[in-house]
């Protein structure tokens, strides 16, 4: 559970832009993978190809289920097993923290229940446990907009956890945060990967964060995979290959 | 260090949602609907009241215990049977003393409701038991007494009170006392003492509006002298005539209140139904939330057509369709009127929402409707409430006007009296409209400030 397989995967946006070009690679259950590359290199597109949020061609298999050409209900079934974390958190600011976490349960409950807002006790419990897992449960009944950036991102993680996912996709999860909270969020993600065995893919901008937390690293340049290997094998030369230039202080968080 | 240790974390208890304070009102109105359909009296009635109240409390997540349903049904049966027993077969005036005696039944029901709320959620203070009892009992007493004083119940004073009368009384009382009880529910949960003025305010809004109608009689002389200076036409308008024969040669007199209530009902039905129908439509008519481009085009096109037709034309159209002078025509016209405005205002608000939560919902595998309900709607909820109250204000005025074209309500009466050149009767009607529009606008502004 939690494996991903790209075979000749491409993504072409309606405007004609090819953001991902003929990518083939596979990710095993429980892996912790960091994806790096310049902005526009196709990192976000690669993540969104996994849960079918972008127009994808070729083949993407998630736990043996094909994303390309999947029907709406098949896509929903795949997405409900794939949690996603966003750079800008994407919380409903006016709603309470627990309600944001409960959004992760929407695909698991019958339509009439979600329409009437009658959440089953066990789903509420799962949402609260997800909040506990990221140490934010004491804010459960506070409006999301009243939290700090780091706290909001933890709610974002809890929302993904509430799905009880096989896979977590984190799209630049720390790009809007300060260095201290960035490390806290990265440690949260690392711990979740270790404790729960959830396959985790993280897009990162900062090279030192990638080095510190990643195990496997995928480098993208102009929609193509230019590096895929163990983080231990990554040196400045590899980074130069991904970025097309030498490392500057701007590429480092600390 | 940020380690996972659930035993060191303290879960806060869930605070009740604001909507829950309004539950007694929801129960009352729902019970009114059920009673209006079924029409039983006494114990059967009390059972229904209790069950409906339990349903409302269940929905609001306050209680899920069967025993509480039993308590509510028992309180309902006791209260309503008593009310029935006091009034059934009695003849003679419903004076303040009798109102007070009959209202004891409502005190019992209110106390039962308060007890269950407190039992199920100790975070509700114990004062809510007394507060609910006082609100239901006090509201019922005041409503019965003022209704008698202003003549609405006058026919009852002259003959025996029947089961049908008690049923009608209860329907009215649920609405009046429900408002008071909801206000008290709201107040009791915070600080009973500090909220007392606002509780009375919410309970008295209806009573005051009723009394204002009577007050006007006393200022006749003062206004008459003013108008006398303006010219002879004023003599035709003044003094207003409040009652006139329904038809020539019959002892039956016409009551302004009846068609006026009809106008209010048209406005309420129009605003409530139109605003509810506009809700899904508004999301279809915004590019942000439309399920497809085709759906967007259809919704937008439909709304453009509805909006370009003026409310008067809707009135004429429906009056022709369902019958001239039929209030149903007015209600239909007001539904289209409200729907068009709300869908327009709300869809433009939806255009400006943050799409991040929508993407998050989609990524979590939620259905389109769930994404809208949980990702988009919370973002526009305050706007929706504000627009709804504003549209209700517009409806009151518009529903008077469409009466002129045969869509029922007080406008029809106004037009009819005007055609007969009965200016003094027209004056009475205009006064009633003026005062009530003012009061409703005032209430709406107050409510918008409170809610948004």
Summarize the structure in words.
The complex is a heterodimer of chains A (254) and B (452). Chain A is of the alpha/beta class. Chain A has 2 domains: 1-81 and 166-254, Rossmann fold (3-Layer(aba) Sandwich); 88-164, no CATH class. Chain A contains 9 helices and 10 strands. Chain A has helices at residues 43-50, 72-80, 97-102, 111-116, 121-133, 149-162, 179-196, 207-213, 236-243; strands spanning 4-12, 18-27, 32-36, 56-62, 65-66, 82-85, 167-171, 199-203, 216-221, 224-230. In chain A, the strands form 2 sheets. In chain A, strands 6-7-8-3-9-10 form a 6-stranded mixed β-sheet, sandwiched between helices. In chain A, strands 2-1-4-5 form a 4-stranded antiparallel β-sheet. In chain A, α5 (121-133) packs across α6 (149-162) and α6 runs parallel beside α7 (179-196). Chain A starts with a strand and ends in an 11-residue tail after the last helix. The relative contact order of chain A is 0.18. Chain B starts with 17 loop residues before the first helix and ends with a helix. Chain B has 452 residues and is mostly helical. Chain B has 2 domains: 18-216, no CATH class; 257-451, MetI-like (MetI-like fold), CATH 1.10.3720.10. Chain B has helices at residues 18-21, 23-38, 43-59, 66-87, 96-120, 127-149, 154-158, 163-189, 192-218, 220-230, 232-237, 257-284, 293-308, 311-322, 327-350, 356-363, 368-402, 410-419, 423-451. Chain B contains 19 helices and no strands. Chain A binds chain B through residues 51, 53, 75-84, 86, 88-95, 98-99, 102-104, 106-107, 111, 114-116, 118, 128-129, 132-133, 135, 137-138, 140-141, 156, 159-160, 163, 169, 184, 187-188, 191, 195, and chain B through 2-4, 6, 9-12, 14-15, 59, 354, 356-357, 359-367, 369-371, 373-375, 378-379, 381-382.
Radius of gyration of chain A: 18 Å
Strand content of chain A: 15-25%
Shape of chain B: flat
Number of strands of chain A: 10
Determine the number of helices of chain B (DSSP H or I, runs of at least 4 residues): 19
Q: State the strand order across the main sheet of chain A.
A: 6-7-8-3-9-10
Count of DSSP H/I helices of chain A: 9
- Runs of chain B in which pLDDT lies below 50 for 5 or more consecutive residues are 191-199, 208-220
Instruction: Give me the Rg of chain B, rounded.
Output: 25 Å
Overall helicity of chain B: over 70%
CATH superfamily of the largest domain in chain A: P-loop containing nucleotide triphosphate hydrolases
SSE topology string of chain B: HHHHHHHHHHHHHHHHHHH
Structural class of chain A: alpha/beta
The CATH class label of the largest domain in chain A is: Alpha Beta
Largest sheet of chain A: 6 strands, mixed
Taking the alpha carbons of the first and last residues of chain A, their distance comes to 35 Å
The tally of strands of chain B reads 0
């Amino acid at each position: 559970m939690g494996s991903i397989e790209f075979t000749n995967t491409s993504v072409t946006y309606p405007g004609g832009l090819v953001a991902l070009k003929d990518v083939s690679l596979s990710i095993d259950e429980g892996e912790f993978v960091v994806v790096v590359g310049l902005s526009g290199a196709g990192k976000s597109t690669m993540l969104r190809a996994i849960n079918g949020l972008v127009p994808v061609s070729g083949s993407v298999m998630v736990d043996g289920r094909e994303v390309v050409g999947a029907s709406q209900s098949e896509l929903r079934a795949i997405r409900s097993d794939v949690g996603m974390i966003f750079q800008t958190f994407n919380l409903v600011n006016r709603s309470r923290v627990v309600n944001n976490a409960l959004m992760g349960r929407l695909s698991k409950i019958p339509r009439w229940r979600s329409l009437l807002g009658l959440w089953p006790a066990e789903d509420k419990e799962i949402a609260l446990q997800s909040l506990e897992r990221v140490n934010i449960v004491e804010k459960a009944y506070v409006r999301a907009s009243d939290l700090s950036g780091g706290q909001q991102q933890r709610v974002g993680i809890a929302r993904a956890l509430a799905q009880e996912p096989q896979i977590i996709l984190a799209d630049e999860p720390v790009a809007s945060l300060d260095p201290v909270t960035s490390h806290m969020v990265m440690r949260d993600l690392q711990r979740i990967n270790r404790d729960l065995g959830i396959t985790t893919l993280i897009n990162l901008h900062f090279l030192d964060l990638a080095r510190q937390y990643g195990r496997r690293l995928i480098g993208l340049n102009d929609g193509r995979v230019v590096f895929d290997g163990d983080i231990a094998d990554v040196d400045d030369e590899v980074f130069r290959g991904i970025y097309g230039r030498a490392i500057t202080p701007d590429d480092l968080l600390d | 260090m940020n380690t996972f240790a659930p035993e060191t974390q303290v879960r806060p208890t869930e605070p009740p949602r604001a909507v829950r304070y309004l539950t007694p009102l929801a129960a009352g109105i729902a019970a009114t609907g059920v009673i209006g359909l079924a029409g039983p009296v006494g114990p059967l009635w009390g059972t229904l009241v209790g069950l409906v109240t339990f349903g409302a409390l269940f929905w609001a997540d306050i209680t899920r215990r069967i025993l509480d349903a039993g308590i509510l049904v028992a309180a309902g049966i006791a209260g309503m049977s008593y009310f029935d027993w006091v009034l059934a077969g009695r003849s003679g005036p419903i004076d303040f003393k009798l109102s007070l005696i009959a209202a004891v039944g409502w005190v019992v029901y209110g106390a039962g409701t308060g007890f269950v709320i407190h039992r199920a959620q100790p975070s509700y203070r114990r004062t809510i038991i007394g507060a609910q009892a006082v609100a239901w009992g006090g509201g019922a007493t005041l409503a019965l007494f003022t209704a008698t004083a202003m003549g609405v119940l006058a026919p009852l004073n002259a003959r025996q009170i029947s089961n049908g009368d008690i049923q009608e009384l209860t329907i009215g009382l649920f609405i009046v006392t429900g408002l008071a009880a909801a206000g008290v529910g709201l107040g009791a949960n915070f600080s009973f003492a500090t909220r007392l003025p606002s509780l009375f305010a919410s309970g008295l809004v209806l009573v005051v509006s009723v009394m204002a109608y009577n007050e006007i009689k006393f200022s006749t002389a003062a206004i008459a002298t003013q108008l006398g200076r303006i010219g002879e036409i004023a003599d035709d308008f003044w003094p207003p005539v409040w009652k006139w024969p329904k038809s020539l040669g019959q002892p039956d007199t016409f009551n302004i209140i009846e068609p006026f209530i009809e106008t209010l009902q048209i406005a309420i039905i129009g605003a409530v139904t139109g605003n509810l129908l506009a809700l899904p439509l508004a999301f279809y008519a915004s590019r942000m939330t439309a399920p497809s481009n085709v759906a967007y085009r259809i919704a937008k096109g439909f709304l453009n057509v509805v909006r370009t037709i003026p409310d008067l034309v809707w009135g004429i159209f429906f009056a022709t369709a369902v019958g001239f002078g039929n209030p149903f025509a007015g209600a239909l016209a007001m539904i289209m009127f409200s729907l068009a405005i709300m869908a327009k205002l709300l869809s433009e608000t939806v255009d400006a929402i943050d799409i991040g939560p929508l993407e998050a919902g989609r990524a979590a595998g939620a259905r389109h409707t769930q994404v809208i309900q949980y990702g988009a709607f919370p973002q526009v909820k305050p706007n929706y409430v504000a627009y709804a109250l504003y549209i209700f204000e517009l409806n009151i005025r518009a529903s008077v006007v469409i009466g002129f074209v045969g869509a029922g309500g007080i406008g029809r009466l106004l037009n009819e009296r005007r055609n007969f050149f009965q200016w003094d009767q027209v004056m009475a009607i205009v006064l009633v409209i003026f005062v009530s529009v003012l009061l409703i606008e005032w209430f709406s502004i107050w409510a918008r400030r409170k809610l948004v």
